[in-house]
């Protein structure tokens, strides 16, 4: 029987934070509400959460599992939109999922839907069936579906979830579009430089060796790099690959992840793009959770899994602690010093007016426009900068190669004179 962690407020205002055992989330919710308590937070404690920490091997395995089982976001958007439409039209969830399974073109996702359809036939709730596939349906998706089931507004929640996923997909597309060009240029630069060092520089090295002339320091350094790369090409590629895997594994640890996520936020221009993208996801996620009636602390829990940055995740931990102590959400966010003042002000206004979900949606729109603005600037600025950088590196290599030839020519001309 699953364990559940809950935070409630008794009729006299006393706050309690304890655990209970129940057959399902709905049963736990019913047990607490029958006692006349106001539920602030209720969530299932999974086995992985009961351990104080997870090993790096477990984290790597989880990351690989999610990559192996994940499906394109557009596929999930289409599924959610169609499920919402069919359910609103009067079809049962079981029938809707079965219909979508028969029409699904992706073999991987079709297998997932087949398992979900089987679980629904066996009497499981939709949220429980989806929870069996964490690589496809994240905790936010499942929490919203569960909230819709409990409140009896599943069709509305599915429609809001479809809009949310479409907004996330659009923001992700803009960020990827802004970063695609510089990544392609960097890859092209590495290929060009590698070709010069492996094929062109050695040709001149033999010429210089025949003359026996004294070479400038930068030419000798270039030849040393070229010789090392030519003679140990596969070893260099292997070491680079191992270094990449080691660095990626290091980011899965707590300290390494915090260092990497801090670097991502502080990096010029791209850091602001990353931060605005996170604030867009946080605002949109928190807004839809609040609008769906999910308790505040549970909503913050889900936002922590969505932002994808350990620095902001830790800040949200502090926010939860302060909210438990009686502080408002906006004051708690401000005290962490990690959230932009614009977002804090909009949250404060939402708390005062009782329209927190509406103000969070406005904040998401604001940060979406910020992402658009930075993406446009990146597109216009990075292209010439990368071309200048590539041209400069090639120029340095060519000058280092040909400078000794010019010197030898002057020496020979002086000798003939």
Mean pLDDT across the residues is 80
Count of DSSP helices? 18
CATH class of the largest domain: Mainly Alpha
At CATH level 2, the architecture of the largest domain is Up-down Bundle
Query: Helical percent range?
Result: over 70%
Strand tally is 3
The Cα radius of gyration reads 29 Å
Low-pLDDT ranges = 47-53
CATH topology call of the largest domain: Receptor-associated Protein
Question: Domains counted in the coordinates: how many?
Answer: 3
Q: Report the CATH superfamily of the largest domain.
A: Type II secretion system (T2SS), domain F
Beta percentage is 5-15%
User: Could you describe the largest sheet, including whether it forms a barrel?
Assistant: 3 strands, antiparallel
Strand order of the largest sheet: 2-1-3
**Shape by Cα distribution:** elongated
Order of helices and strands: EEHEHHHHHHHHHHHHHHHHH
What class, by secondary structure content?
A: mainly alpha
């Amino acid at each position: 029987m699953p364990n559940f962690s809950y935070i409630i407020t008794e009729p006299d205002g006393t706050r309690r934070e304890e655990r209970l055992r129940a057959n399902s989330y709905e049963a736990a919710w019913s047990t607490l509400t029958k006692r006349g308590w106001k539920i602030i937070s209720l969530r299932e404690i999974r086995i992985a959460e009961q351990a104080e920490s997870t090993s790096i091997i477990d984290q790597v395995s989880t990351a690989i599992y999610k990559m192996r089982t994940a499906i394109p976001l557009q596929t999930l958007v289409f599924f959610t939109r169609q499920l919402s439409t069919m359910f609103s039209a009067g079809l049962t969830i079981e029938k809707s999922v079965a219909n979508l399974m028969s029409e699904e073109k992706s073999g991987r996702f079709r297998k997932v839907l087949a398992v979900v359809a089987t679980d629904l036939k066996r009497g499981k709730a939709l949220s429980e069936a989806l929870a069996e596939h964490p690589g496809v349906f994240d905790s936010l998706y499942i929490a919203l579906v569960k909230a819709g089931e409990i409140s009896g507004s599943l069709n509305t929640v599915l429609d809001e979830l479809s809009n949310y996923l479409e907004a996330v997909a659009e923001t992700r597309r803009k960020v990827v579009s802004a970063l695609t060009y510089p990544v392609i240029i960097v890859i092209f630069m590495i290929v060009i430089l590698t070709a010069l060092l492996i094929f062109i520089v050695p040709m001149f090295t033999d010429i210089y060796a025949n003359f026996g002339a004294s070479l400038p320091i930068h030419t000798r350094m270039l030849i040393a790099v070229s010789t090392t790369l030519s003679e140990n090409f596969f070893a260099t590629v292997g070491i680079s690959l191992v270094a990449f895997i080691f660095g990626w594994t290091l980011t899965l640890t707590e300290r390494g992840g915090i260092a990497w996520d801090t670097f991502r936020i502080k990096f010029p221009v791209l850091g602001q793009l990353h931060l605005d993208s996170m604030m867009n996801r946080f605002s949109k996620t928190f807004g839809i959770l609040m609008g769906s009636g999910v308790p505040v602390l549970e909503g913050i829990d889900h936002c922590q899994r969505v932002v994808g940055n350990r620095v902001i995740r830790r800040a949200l931990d502090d926010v939860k602690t302060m909210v438990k102590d009686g502080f408002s959400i906006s004051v708690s966010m401000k005290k962490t010093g990690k959230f932009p003042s614009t977002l804090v002000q909009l949250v404060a206004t939402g708390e005062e007016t009782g329209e927190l979900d509406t103000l969070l949606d406005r904040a998401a729109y604001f940060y979406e426009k910020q992402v658009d603005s930075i993406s446009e600037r990146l597109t216009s600025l990075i292209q010439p900068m990368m071309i200048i950088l590539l041209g400069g590196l090639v120029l340095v290599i060519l000058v280092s190669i040909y400078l000794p030839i010019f010197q030898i020519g002057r020496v020979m001309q002086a000798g003939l004179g």
